[in-house]
Amino acid sequence: MKVSTVVRHLREGLKNVVRNGWMTFAxxxxxxxxxxxxxVFLLLAMNVxxxxxxxxxxxEIRVYLQLNTDQAKINELKNAIGNIPExxxxxxxxxxxxxxxxxxxxxxxxxxxxxxxDSTNNPLPDSFTVEVFEPQKIAYAAKQIDAISKxxxxxxxxxxxxxxxxxxxxxxxxxxxxxxxxxxxxxxxxTAMFLISNTIKMTILARRRExxxxxLVGATNNFIRWPFFIEGALIGLMGSGFTIAxxxxxxxxxxxxxxxxxxxxxxxxxxxKEAGFFVSVLILGLGTLLGIWGSTLSVRKYxxx
Amino acid sequence: MIELQDIWKTYADGSHALRGxxxxxxxxxxxxxxxxxxxxxxxxxxxxxxxxxxxxGQISVNGFNIGKLKPRKIPYxxxxxxxxxxxxxxxxxxxxxxxxxxxxEVIEAPHRVIKKRTxxxxxxxxxxxxxxxxxxxxxxxxxxxVAIARAIVNNPAVIVADEPTGNLDPxxxxxxxxxxxxxxxxxxxxxxxxxxxxxxxxxxxxxIAIENGIIVRDEMRGEYGYES
Lengths: 305, 228
Prior knowledge:
Main location (chain B): membrane
Organism (chain B): Paenibacillus taihuensis
Subunit structure (chain B): Homodimer. Forms a membrane-associated complex with FtsX.
Number of domains of chain A: 2
Shape of chain B: globular
Order of helices and strands of chain B: EEEHEEHEHHHEHEHEE
Oligomer: heterodimer
Number of strands of chain B: 10
InterPro entries (chain B): AAA+_ATPase, ABC_transporter-like_ATP-bd, ABC_transporter-like_CS, ABC_transpr_LolD-like, Cell_div_FtsE, P-loop_NTPase
Radius of gyration of chain B: 17 Å
Keywords (chain B): ATP-binding, Cell cycle, Cell division, Cell membrane, Membrane, Nucleotide-binding, Transport
């Protein structure tokens, strides 16, 4: 293709966007509306996923030791647990610390319950708090910790607890939430595709005559296709650009406004910085592709004559 | 230069538009195609610019076997055939200049050549001052002149005109006919379907009459032969 032809196609594509002002408006609007809805759900899904990860990461294993386990044994066990590949960290909680934590978690209302207990008559055993890399593998890690104790003839560990049952249910819920989010986002994506390609199809239907005349004067199919291709890309770019501006602005306001209230509930939203890039790239790519796809698909239909 | 050999054209609905048409049209001829509506005139012309392909028979234009043409090659054959319609078929959002220049952009002519040649044909059709107007701002006769300018801008060997004066008043029609004669005089073959008895009987040319898909008459300097 000659350089002058490339310039011509770019110029024509740009001109067509202006010439068919209302059609451009309709296409851009349909892109903005469908991608905006998609974007909102995407951000929602990201936050739900983030929240699920936060909850999951709070899951930990408690390893209780026999009373009066000596320091050497404690160190040995700590190393052994730390060597399990799934384990992220092992923290020793002495029985005194344990009592302190228990007091805190019961709070002022129940302080009488623990009255009279101090380091001399502390009924609690020493323990480890174990965190794992992947919360989903917690049961497996717990089993391995148990195995360490069983291999030892002194059986230094009395119990390994990780909220068996509760944790599994939690994972079931978070997984379900994630999958539902994914399905909704995918469904909206497909809907957006049809909506956009339909609008563009209509705008090109109105220009069937134009294509017919181009063919009549001897334009090759590629020659006809290029300006439409560029026009579609421009419409997609405009639509997704608009959507991104709308989404990012709206989301930054939301984060700002809700920061305090959600903070009280220990919920932290995904920051604009974390979400912005991914959402922008996805919507820009999707919008542009849809614009091009819609226009080339429709042109192809009329090129067959 | 244009040769049809035993051309049959049957449409998908089973109607026979042409039933064994054989004819030869030489370079620089001016041919009127006459006959009742639905006789097959439009099909005849569509076959020449390869909008339709014959069901049977051979057709060659400028040495190309039109029926066997690969789709990829069609645009290149069309560049040698200018087509004019009763309803002008201009691009409504392009100016007069752009409408004509478009036909040259398509063949990737250099910008300077496009400009020169477009102004040249605008001069020829008498619309030099109107190059910035949109089609809707022009009268019917002027729009048809633009369509003619577009058809001839690439110096085609053949012009196919389907009732070019069909929507015009008599006076404007004569203006268009003078223009077509001028173009024919400069060496372009013209095939024109028409229902205009006065024009055919006054501006005497070869007349081919088609009825029911068959050529019933073919005379040099013929007459219209129907009541209008």
